[in-house]
Amino acid sequence: MLHKIRTTKPQQFIDITNKVADEVKNSNVRDGIAVIYVPHTTAGVTINENADPDVVRDMISALDKTYPVHGEYLHFEGNSHAHIKASLMGSSCTVMIQDGKLLLGTWQGIYFCEFDGPRNREFYVKIIRD
Ligand code: ZN
Q1: Cβ neighbours for 34, distance < 8 A, ≥ 6 positions apart
Q2: In 4, 17, 33, 86, which residue has its Cα 20 to 30 A from 75's Cα atom?
């Protein structure tokens, strides 16, 4: 299913765990996998800690130190840092579904990763029955 979101910052991690969990619930699939796919070149998706919001802030600042917004890049659009960060996070993730629920660790959340916002963005969730 297609989900549309609006990001509000140039770089931002948005917790989409509940949107994916709702889709798993509505599918009535007890055992299977959920694939989350982001069809963008300057945004990605990753799984990381959802308890302390400083974790995602630290991830963005560490990525910025390694791949600064204004670095020595050739790409004419001036957003190479965003392309690099999007590829590092990846364009999809897969989470197992067990007993009708996402098999995530206690502290894990699924994040949509914006690197060239704010923009209207999309991601897809596909639920596959085992
Ligand atoms: Zn570009």
Answers
A1: 20, 23, 24, 94, 95, 96, 97, 102, 125, 126, 127, 128
A2: 4
C-alpha 118 to ligand 1 mean position (Å): 15
Between the CA of 54 and the centroid of ligand 1 the distance, in Å, is 28
| CA of 41 relative to ligand 1 center, distance in Å | 8
CA of 85 to the centre of ligand 1 (A): 12
Cα of 76 vs centre of ligand 1, distance in Å, is 7
Q: Report the run of H or E that residue 36 belongs to, with start and end.
A: strand 32-37
CATH number at 71 reads 2.60.120.460
Tell me the CA–centroid distance for residue 72 and ligand 1, in Å. 14
Give the total number of structural domains in the chain.
1
pLDDT tens digits, one per residue of 23-64 = 999 999 999 999 999 999 999 999 999 999 999 999 999 999
Instruction: Specify the pTM.
Output: 0.96
